[in-house]
Amino acid sequence: MGCIENAALALYVWGRWALVAAVVALVVYRSRRGLRWPLLAREAALIATAYFAYFGVRGFTEGSEARALANAGLIMSAERALGFFWEPALQALILGNHGLITLANWAYIWGHWPLIGVVGIWLFLSRPEAYRIYRNAFLISGAMGIVIFMAFPVAPPRLTDIDVVDTVTVYSKAYRVLQPPALVNQYAAVPSLHFGWNLLVGIALVKEARSPLLKVFGAVMPAVMFLAIVLTANHYILDGAAGAAIALTGLLLARRIGETGAFSRPGARPPRQLRGAHL
Fold it and tell me: Which of 166, 19, 192 is nearest to 101 (CA)?
């Protein structure tokens, strides 16, 4: 790969994160008068710790390839029995259209951590009570997911012998650069928290955003992500259903926990809800 290609790849990899950082900085700037920096630092440390612990545990608990492939066979057999083993046929609909492939890849990439980060910062600044609920829902569902990954490793469609293409790797190298397969659990297909967490973000936007356009975006984005996880051959249809169940269970438990005040610092007051911090 030449210098120009390397520069283009670097711009693609880091440029989108620079854009996310710029959006976060803008939101923080507009809310700076009521922002309690120690509280922000504490939350940032908590989220960073949870993030690296999640991927660290996922990576260290990767099951054997043989077992993951066998379990993938069980998932495909279950879908066939239920009448919706559609993954190869659905992907075949877009493989001849580079634009649709790009849309699926970008929904899969941008609709995950970048979107989670921006919406999380906004909730923290303008909807602190809702932020704690959704933060706890992420933590709870992530912990549940890790247990399932350990007990039931499943190879995603792209790592099996069915007729699908790993579109993210083939058509968009940046995502595998950010999350190299060697550093993460490749056999964590079930449940799809990629979809489940996007669903939580969508619910948060529908319930908490004031803008009708953002409410519509929050309602539509989970459906787009569900298509993306299947069309990119990263998950089975059942994975998405399992991810939704785990995420919604986490949200239910987080709301119950919120009623008791758990996972919150005693006596801590959330930041003031400020004009200009709303979406």
Answer: 166
Distances (CA, A) of 1 to 5, 123, 153, 176, 182: 6, 41, 35, 16, 21
At 277, is the pLDDT very low, low, confident or very high (cuts 50, 70, 90)? very low
| Distance of alpha carbon 210 from the chain centroid | 23
Residues 6 or more apart whose CB falls under 8 angstroms from that of 254 comprise 133, 134, 135, 136, 137, 140
What are the distances in angstroms from CA 224 to CA 50, 97, 227, 250?
26, 17, 5, 22
Contact criterion met (CB below 8 Å) for 112 and 198:
yes
Angstrom distance (rounded) from CA 69 to CA 54: 23
pLDDT in tens, 37-55: 676 677 777 777 777 766 6
For residue 270, say if its preceding peptide bond is cis, omega within 30 degrees of 0: no
153-187: buried (b, 16+ CB within 10 Å) or exposed (e) per residue? bbbbbbbbeeebbebbbeebebbeeeeeeeeebbb
Q: Is the pTM of this model over 0.85?
A: no
Integer Cα distance of 173 and 105 in angstroms: 10
Task: Name the more confident of 279 and 123.
Answer: 123
Token duo for residue 175: 């995502």
CB atoms within 10 A of CB 9: 14
Q: Residue 104's pLDDT is what? A: 95
Q: What is the mean pLDDT of residues 88-114?
A: 92
Q: Which two tokens stand for residue 202?
A: 């969508």
SS3 of 185, please?
coil
Task: For residues 134-150, give the mean pLDDT.
Answer: 93
Please report, for residues 99, 172, 191, the alpha-carbon distance to residue 238 in angstroms, rounded to integers and kept in the order given. 26, 25, 8
